[in-house]
Amino acid sequence: MKLTAFSAALGSVFLLASGEPTENVRRKETSEPLLPSQDPFYTAPPNWEQTAPGTILRIRTAPGNVTTVIANTSAVWNIVYRTTDSNYKPSWAVTTVLAPLQNVSAPDNGTHNSLLSLQIAYNTAYPDSTPSIMLYGAASAPTFGGPSTADDIAYMLGKGWYVTIPDHEGPLASFGLGVQEGHATIDSIRATLNSDILPKQIPTKYAMWGYSGGSVASSWAAELQEQYAPELKFAGMAIGGLVPNITKGLQLSGTPFAGLIPGLFLGITSQDAEAREYLVSRLKTSGPYNATGFLAALRYDVGTLFLKYPGQEIGEYFVGGLADLRAPVLERISRSNTWQGYHGIPQTPVFVYKAIQDEFSPVSDSDELVQRWCGIDVDVRYERNEVGEHIDEINNGRLRALEWLETVFDGTLEKTGCDVRNVSVAVNTGI
Ligand SMILES: *[C@@H]1O[C@H](CO)[C@@H](O)[C@H](O)[C@H]1NC(C)=O
Ligand SMILES: *[C@@H]1O[C@H](CO)[C@@H](O)[C@H](O)[C@H]1NC(C)=O
Ligand SMILES: *[C@@H]1O[C@H](CO)[C@@H](O)[C@H](O)[C@H]1NC(C)=O
Ligand SMILES: *[C@@H]1O[C@H](CO)[C@@H](O)[C@H](O)[C@H]1NC(C)=O
Ligand SMILES: *[C@@H]1O[C@H](CO)[C@@H](O)[C@H](O)[C@H]1NC(C)=O
Ligand SMILES: *[C@@H]1O[C@H](CO)[C@@H](O)[C@H](O)[C@H]1NC(C)=O
Ligand SMILES: *[C@@H]1O[C@H](CO)[C@@H](O)[C@H](O)[C@H]1NC(C)=O
Fold it and tell me: Which N-terminal residues, if any, form the signal peptide (predicted)?
């Protein structure tokens, strides 16, 4: 199965790349994964800008031991594909595709393939911290007491679903740039469908799932899809811990999660030289809270961000305090890239779950986004959990999301219209 599927996948690249020099498509197998900055696979081949979004630029079997780390996996691929950045310029990104032990979704007796597009909340401006690399440690990463990402993926593979996991922040680690993240998510699905990894005899149903930073990528993909990828038809989208207005992340200053702020502002300025220059120009050059300390976040993964800045008042790093982060040059990016609900209408049923006491993003923002969608007849089921906060809802919402996604794939999802309800769900995670 592994070899057959791999040759099939390669076949499709050569097909797609026909007419282009063959060195455009490079197969590289290494026994150990390298960091993206060290690994030539994480580059685009010559003339890639002329290809259509979603074109496969490179594909390989994933190096190392992913099939050992993630249970229920038969094979894993990395795909470099063409996408479009936040400046609407050609860009590329990488997605990781995992195949289940059995090809077809069991619930409807094999009338379609099921493909889950999983958006991981990697929340960092560090280009070497990406889901395609994090997967190798997915079984041992901190889980806040619940199942790990490896468990989530194994659960989905165990249902017979294929899973595609984009490095949706792109090569510059553009944490928080919604247009970038949405495009990269959409094109990862196109690239996966363009490969021969999924059996072609039957159609593929595809749906998205993301929590927190992952929900941002999923939501932007849903907002941008109608205009950017009109040929796609999502079967559903499950999003939890929504952050419809990331600018409000500034309220995490002084909390245990303050480290998200340096990551976010370095992320949203990653594709705008003027904004980055402004940001750096406002950093203090001496004292305990200085430019060196802030810019170090360019090399921190999300776990390290939490470790390095807990409780810090991030305004201390800036000459003009937090107000510097509300300057027009940054606000301009926020308007086009960090406020959800203004770019388009999700053309797919949506399941939303959110802790009422979420301290990362006020529940009122999620209420408002859902009301917008409801007002234009998007099919939304919205569960507001009376229990827990942002981190708790990862585990409290996990099974509800997975079970909803199962109904998406097995065809039993019922049209709910606008269904907003308060729930009280506490999953005992033993902590
Ligand atoms: C997988 O490989 C990584 C190094 O790439 C290693 O740290 C890890 O222990 C391995 N895991 C398993 C389950 O083999
Ligand atoms: C699928 O198969 C099961 C068991 O073989 C059967 O009970 C069920 O009716 C079938 N469902 C469909 C949609 O054909
Ligand atoms: C693997 O899939 C089976 C179903 O085929 C499931 O029972 C099992 O829990 C899955 N493993 C994990 C670790 O989720
Ligand atoms: C999966 O699909 C491929 C291509 O259709 C086929 O060759 C292979 O036998 C299938 N594998 C399983 C486990 O059903
Ligand atoms: C997002 O939050 C910022 C900061 O509170 C606020 O200025 C802005 O108006 C909000 N945007 C939307 C669309 O609500
Ligand atoms: C910058 O901040 C770090 C951490 O507090 C400190 O070690 C360093 O001395 C500071 N640099 C300057 C120039 O003050
Ligand atoms: C849900 O709880 C909120 C308070 O958080 C309340 O205002 C609202 O009426 C409740 N909604 C429903 C549908 O019960």
Answer: 1-19
